[in-house]
Amino acid sequence: MTADTEPATGLLARQRILALVHTGAVAASAPIEHGQLQPASLDLRLGAEAFRVRASFLPGSGASVRERLTSLNPERVSLERDGAVLEKGIVYIAPLIERLALPAGVSGAANPKSSTGRLDIFTRLIVDGSDAFDAVPESYAGPLWAEISPRSFSVRVRQGTRLNQLRFRAGGAAPLDAEAIRGRHESRALVDRPLSVRDGLIVHVGLAGEPGEVVGYRAIKNSDVIDVDRVAGYAAADFWEPILARQDRRLVLDPEAFYILASREKMQIPADLAAEMAPIDPAIGEFRVHYAGFFDPGFGQGPDGRPSARAVLEVRSRDVPFLLEDGQPVGRLVFEKLADAADELYGAGETSNYQHQGLKLSKHFRG
Fold first, then answer.
1. CA-to-CA distance for 308 and 295, rounded, in angstroms?
2. Where does 285-357 show beta strands of DSSP type E?
3. InterPro entries this protein is in (predicted)?
4. How far apart are the C-alpha atoms of 312 and 223, rounded to whole Å?
5. Exposed/middle/buried for 23, CB within 10 Å: 0-12, 13-18, 19+?
6. In angstroms, rounded to a whole number, what is the distance separating the alpha carbons of residues 178 and 200?
7. What is the pLDDT of residues 266-318, one digit of tens each?
8. What 3-state class would DSSP assign to 137?
């Protein structure tokens, strides 16, 4: 980067990501599309092929993803033209169209896109020499790969399908601490309920409702294949069982079932911050919440300046039934500053599908 484009410390906003594209720090075998550029992240695209493998893996120091992949004797799957069906319960490794040559001081962090998480498609980024998923080390130069494992539905994908997204971080910026979060909330409410802070803003599950009100959805097993690129193409009732509010405001999660729930609080992300949903406590292993954890600047900002969107929670129980109660803490929002003000906020672009949302399935479903 030249001196006049050197980013300040923090997450890079859309215009800074575009600068990385212009300098070649982000390159691709096909031109970067406008719709890939989000307020504080870049959507990544699948390449022309994927490989079915028997196990997930990390390459480890000094090894490439290609080397480790070859050692597993993978089965190649073409993603060209109409693409291919990725079967649920199977692990696939796919090269991405984008590759990186990051400048000094810039690193990356990846997460599934919101629609990917809501379809229960377990997706993680892998880079050469890495011993951690979804992490791109500072100054990384090389290809990008996606690990893909559909859990509830078999899905059709193709070359160019966007399943995950990448944030870029300049310097070693630390998340906002409790004092800073409280100060932000006092100046402009982050949530519409009393603030709870512990290593981030605590998010609680919402299970209260009027009799007959839908408070969640459970995925129906053995449903049809879902085309990830087909918007509003499927009747929700063919894939999801509604969960109605109970008088005791409880829900028992069945082992290995997948649920779509919503936070009790409405929230908003300030224009100069971005956030990520993190586990409430790594020691709580009974259930997993929120595969797709990125929240862009501007998310949930209502026309009156008040929080207007609930966080949709992708929830999967593990080995035993687990009881959830209304208001139970299930995650925490970790806030980071942007290096520069974003030139476009969430909700302003054509790809903002979940602004002002309540409980909402992915964009693929209607009804």
1. 14
2. 287-289, 294-295, 309-317, 322-325, 329-337
3. DCD_C, DCD_N, dUTPase-like_sf
4. 22
5. middle
6. 7
7. 999 999 999 999 887 766 656 777 666 899 999 999 888 899 999 999 998 88
8. coil
